[in-house]
Amino acid sequence: MREYLTYLAQTKKVAASTQNQARAALQFLYRDVLAEPLQPIEGFEPAKVPQHLPNVLSRQDVERVLGAMRGVSCLMAMLLYGSGLRLMECCRLRIKDLDLERGEIKVRRGKGARDRVTMVPAQLLERLQEQIRAVRTLQGIRIARGGGYVELPGAFGVKSSGASRNWIWMWLFPSGREVWHVE
Questions:
Q1: Contacts of residue 33, Cβ cutoff 8 Å, sequence gap at least 6
Q2: Beta-sheet pairing, 104-107 with 98-99
Q3: What is the CA radius of gyration of the chain?
Q4: Reported pTM
């Protein structure tokens, strides 16, 4: 067993996780299939998975990236960076999730399906207010054309029939495609 695991590590140069998986498979073979006790291998330790530090952009790099962006995508990137939001959390924000007076964002069903509250960077307050006004205008246009519906969470749409057109339920960053209500 020692020779095989050494062969994997030194000759085949497989990753530490692959070495550990091979060791676990051999242990399973002896213990559960062959029903033979497997003696510990002296001087042999499980391979250590190397720890990698995450790559983090410098402040100057972040400023350069954000400086090259424009429009809604720039606002979204600034919100991601300044609020600590994950991409899908930002994409799923609704108007009702923002409390600009308190400077808070309610993140619903984020990572691990948990709700949390994060901050709104003060420098984005005015741009977010402009975005909310633009969404409200877009919502009015879509309703006038017979659309303007938004998907509601769970069974809320059944409980509150008019909510799917209520502007506070609109996405903060709506799609360019319009959703039409089907009954």
A1: none
A2: antiparallel
A3: 26
A4: 0.65
